Amino acid sequence: MSAQPKYKQENFYSEEESNSRSKKVNLTDLVERMKDEEKKEKKNNLILSAAAVSAVAVFGIILTL
User: Fold this and answer.
1) In Å, how far are 10, 13, 19, 22, 30 from 16, measured between CA atoms?
2) CA atoms within 13 A on the CB side of 8
3) 3-class secondary structure per residue, the chain
4) What are the residue boundaries of the structural domains of the chain, listed by start?
5) pLDDT interval class at 42 (50, 70, 90)
6) What is the value of pTM for the model shown?
7) Of 25, 59, 63, 65, whose CB neighbour count within 10 A is largest?
8) What is the distance between the alpha carbons of residues 29 and 23, in angstroms, rounded to a whole number?
9) Distance CA 28, CA 35 (A)
10) Contacts of 18 (CB under 8 A, 6+ apart)
């Protein structure tokens, strides 16, 4: 009897899965993306708030005339 297996051992993972498993997540990139998204969200919220306050002010001025 030989020490070699009688059958070929198959890779149970596809090539795509094995590539995704070998990639490491860069935490600093994720944190930077999160901070950038927060800045964009704050900017959008500020613009929306300014537009709402302006609309209320214009409406109030129109009512007082």
Assistant:
1) 15, 8, 5, 10, 22
2) 3
3) CCCCCCCCCCCCCCHHHHHHHHCCCCHHHHHHHHHHHHHHHHHHHHHHHHHHHHHHHHHHHHHHC
4) 27-64
5) very high
6) 0.55
7) 59
8) 14
9) 11
10) 11
